[in-house]
Write a structure and sequence with these properties.
Blueprint (H helix, E strand, L loop, with lengths): L1 H20 L2 E4 L1 H7 L1 H39 L4 H26 L4 H28 L3 E4 H4 L10 H12 L5
Parallel strand pairs: 1-2
Length: 175
């Protein structure tokens, strides 16, 4: 018990010294997301592709609906063989639509993969910019102020510096 108490006292006495040696800054990632053009471009590109897929999907659904209505109007006056054939055709069309939806927007779908790839590329650039600012200004820690920072002295806000670095990366001469 005395060792624990002694350890606690030593920690309390050395904490100010340890913390005075560390240089901590923060960035506002939500502001970077809002102001960095590549984020905006990626979001608009994904929205455009999503709308295109959504239009294709709606077209397929309208075709299926038309097929079902046609079947219902002709069902009573047709042979059992024709009905079975049309029911199979409708079931096959439903499966095709489900497969299309999974292929395009499902968890393993094309849009999900494209979004993940774009985010990875942009976040890699953000990480490089943060690392460069940290090294240049000799910061030991840079935290994301958008996540859990309730207050931060504006002196330690490095968001503008990170945005400046990101914009330098975006210039055609420096790629």
């Amino acid at each position: 018990m005395k060792k624990i108490f002694l350890g606690f006292i030593v920690l309390l006495l050395t904490a100010p010294y340890i913390y005075s040696q560390s240089k901590i800054g923060f960035v506002q990632s939500d502001r970077i997301r809002a102001e960095f053009e590549e984020f905006k471009d990626a979001e608009s590109q994904l929205q455009m592709e999503f709308r295109k897929v959504q239009f294709e999907y709606q077209t397929m659904l309208m075709s299926l609906d038309s097929m079902k209505k046609s079947f219902e109007t002709q069902r009573l006056m047709s042979s059992p063989e024709w009905r079975r054939e049309k029911e199979q055709e409708i079931a096959q069309r439903e499966q095709t639509i489900q497969a299309f939806q999974a292929q395009k927007v499902g968890p393993e779908g094309e849009l999900y993969k494209k979004q993940a790839q774009m985010e990875f590329e942009i976040l890699s650039k953000v990480k490089r910019a943060v690392d460069k600012v940290a090294a240049t200004k000799e910061y030991d820690f840079i935290i994301d102020g958008s996540v859990s920072l309730l207050f931060g002295n504006p002196t330690y806000d490095l968001t503008d510096d990170v945005l400046y670095e990101l914009r330098k990366y975006s210039l055609p001469d420096e790629n």
